[in-house]
Amino acid sequence: MFTGTAVFDLLLPGDSRSLKAKRSYVRPIVAALRRVEVSTAEVGALDLHGRAEIAVAVVSATAAHVHEVLDSCERLVAARPEVDLLSVRRQLYGADD
Description:
Elements: E1 2-11, H1 19-34, E2 39-44, E3 51-60, H2 63-78, E4 84-93
């Protein structure tokens, strides 16, 4: 069994000057990630209007499948034209960790 996580650090557009505007950018991304069948949530920069951190987690029988799913999540987030993907932090955990 393998578990993988990825945390996406996002820069939101300049017009997101309220938490309501921030949600209008974050919610569609979280919804799109959930369609990939991963667990996802906004986990950081919760009080900053221009930044967001979104995390995903996946469990699989093989490490290769975990990498495939995390790659597809990263491509999905990077393809969003309304946000800038600043960084991605990944971790892979095996059954012995």
